[in-house]
């Protein structure tokens, strides 16, 4: 067990040690990481840092004490709502991340079902196989049955099968825009029709797509309707700390109306500390995550996001073209920043391991086994290096097989 030192140490010492400790971490600053980190460039990083520290000590829990944060939150949420075609009267909140947003949306849907649809007893949630495990976590916390439905051959939500999985105890239908494993946007319009027909709550998980898809569409890509434009969509999750390029610890959870949003908020006065109203899972909410989000969004504006995301889709197209030439097969037709690709002959886990040895830290899928990249603007500068390393890794792999998912890091 690590013990606290008797005496404190100089900050300059600690700082050096901390930087040194990072030397074994994934090399994301060189562009060799395509998971966990979004590298939008030095300019955005500088804004994130300074804006975060300006409000680092303030607390989003106290809107009366910090009207500045409340105003920044309202403006950030407003920007999210308007980008995602929310109608007048729509409402939202900044949360600590996608998992928080999803958990709170599930809570709202459950409380809505109890209050307005007479749900009593067990509840269930119907989602495609490709939906994020945050739904399982939320379901586990609230004792809700999670019903995962296999995806179709297009790797998208199988809406007929999902319809069959619903019943009178279904509190939520889920679609992803896009799903994390495949990077593909589910059949949101068809899910919206189903939600309308069965009077179900449809949540669109746009955690990884909400702050890129609108701009990619503005840049000319034919992105299908996936947001509040689809009438059945009651709530959405969209992460600021992913393609919003904001500091970590920031997502938005958005609702079609204030009436629906109200079911999310927790209001408690049964303790000696006075009434406490908390919209999200957190109590204390870091002011810096809110202020950094506000600053980055205003720093980039629509023009800035269109430019940064243009670099992402350019990198993705170059990857698609390059890997296809090497005999890989891209899963579906990705339109945003995630691309996954499989190989008919080579064992992709062995290729992954070889890439890892060359300093690449990326991701994988299991069904089908595929290499997976979540691209940042910076990646368009290193696509050629990636493809050259991939070609070498593929050649080195030969007919070798790497057993098990874990073997990839050896
Ligand atoms: C990242 C992600 C989440 C979870 O978000 P966290 O911020 O990691 O909690 C949920 N859904 C999708 C599609 C995601 O990509």
Tags for this model:
single chain, 410 residues, alpha/beta, Aspartate Aminotransferase, domain 1, Aspartate Aminotransferase, domain 2, 2 domains, seven-stranded mixed beta sheet, four-stranded antiparallel beta sheet, 12 helices, 13 strands, globular, binds pyridoxal-5'-phosphate
Secondary-structure blueprint:
Elements: H1 11-21, H2 42-54, H3 67-83, E1 91-95, H4 98-116, E2 124-128, H5 134-141, E3 145-149, H6 159-165, E4 170-176, H7 188-198, E5 202-205, H8 213-218, E6 233-239, E7 251-255, H9 258-262, E8 266-268, E9 276-278, H10 287-325, E10 328-330, E11 338-343, H11 348-357, E12 363-366, E13 369-374, H12 383-397
Parallel strand pairs: 2-3, 2-4, 4-5, 5-6
Antiparallel strand pairs: 1-7, 6-7, 8-9, 10-11, 11-13, 12-13
Explain briefly what this protein structure is.
The chain has 410 residues and is an alpha/beta fold.
* CATH H-level superfamily of the largest domain: Type I PLP-dependent aspartate aminotransferase-like (Major domain)
Distance between the termini: 27 Å
Radius of gyration: 22 Å
Main pleated-sheet profile: 7 strands, mixed
- According to CATH, what is the class of the largest domain? Alpha Beta
Average predicted confidence as pLDDT: 96
Q: What form results from the Cα inertia axes? A: globular
Number of helices, counting only DSSP H or I runs of 4 residues or more: 12
Q: Strand portion, in percent?
A: 15-25%
Please give the CATH architecture of the largest domain. 3-Layer(aba) Sandwich
Number of domains: 2
Determine the fraction of residues in helical runs and give it as a percent range: 25-40%
Strands in their spatial order, largest beta sheet: 1-7-6-5-4-2-3
Stretches with pLDDT under 50, minimum 5 residues:
none
Helix/sheet category = alpha/beta
Give the SSE order as H and E letters: HHHEHEHEHEHEHEEHEEHEEHEEH
CATH topology of the largest domain: Aspartate Aminotransferase, domain 2
Bound molecules: pyridoxal-5'-phosphate
Tally the beta strands. Answer: 13
């Amino acid at each position: 067990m690590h013990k606290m030192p008797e005496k404190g140490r100089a900050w300059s010492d600690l700082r050096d040690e901390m930087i040194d400790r990072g030397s074994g971490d994934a090399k994301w600053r060189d562009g060799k990481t395509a998971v966990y980190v979004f590298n939008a460039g030095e300019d955005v990083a500088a804004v994130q840092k300074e804006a975060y520290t300006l409000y680092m000590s303030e607390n989003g829990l106290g809107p009366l004490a910090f009207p500045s944060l409340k105003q920044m939150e309202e403006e950030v949420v407003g920007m999210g709502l308007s980008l995602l075609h929310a109608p007048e009267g729509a409402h939202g909140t900044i949360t600590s991340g996608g998992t928080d947003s999803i958990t709170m949306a599930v809570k709202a849907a459950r409380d809505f079902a109890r209050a307005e649809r007479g749900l009593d007893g067990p509840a269930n949630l119907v989602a495609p196989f490709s939906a994020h495990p945050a739904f399982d976590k939320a379901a586990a916390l609230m004792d809700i049955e999670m019903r995962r439905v296999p995806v179709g051959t297009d790797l998208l939500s199988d809406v007929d099968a999902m319809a069959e999985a619903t019943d009178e105890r279904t509190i939520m239908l889920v679609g992803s825009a896009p799903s994390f494993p495949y990077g593909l946007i589910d059949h949101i319009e068809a899910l919206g029709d189903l939600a309308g027909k069965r009077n179900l709550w449809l949540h669109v998980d746009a955690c990884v797509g909400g702050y890129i898809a609108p701009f990619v569409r503005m840049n000319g890509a034919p992105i299908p309707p996936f947001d509040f434009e689809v009438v059945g969509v009651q709530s959405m999750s969209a992460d600021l700390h992913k393609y919003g390029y904001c500091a970590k610890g920031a997502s938005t959870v958005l609702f079609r109306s204030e009436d629906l949003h109200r079911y999310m908020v927790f209001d408690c006065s049964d303790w000696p500390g006075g009434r406490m109203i908390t919209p999200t899972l957190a109590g204390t909410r870091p002011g810096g995550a809110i202020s950094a989000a506000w600053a980055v969004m205003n720093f980039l504006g629509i023009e800035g996001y269109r430019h940064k995301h243009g670099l992402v889709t350019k990198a993705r197209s170059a990857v698609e073209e390059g890997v296809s030439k090497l005999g890989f097969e891209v899963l579906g037709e990705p339109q945003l920043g995630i691309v996954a690709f499989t190989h008919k002959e080579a064992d992709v886990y062995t290729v992954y391991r070889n890439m890892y040895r060359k300093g690449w830290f990326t991701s994988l899928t299991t069904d089908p086994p595929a290499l997976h990249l979540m691209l940042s603007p910076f990646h368009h500068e290193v696509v050629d290096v990636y493809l050259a390393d991939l070609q070498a890794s593929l050649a080195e792999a030969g007919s070798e097989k790497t057993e098990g998912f874990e073997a990839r890091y050896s």
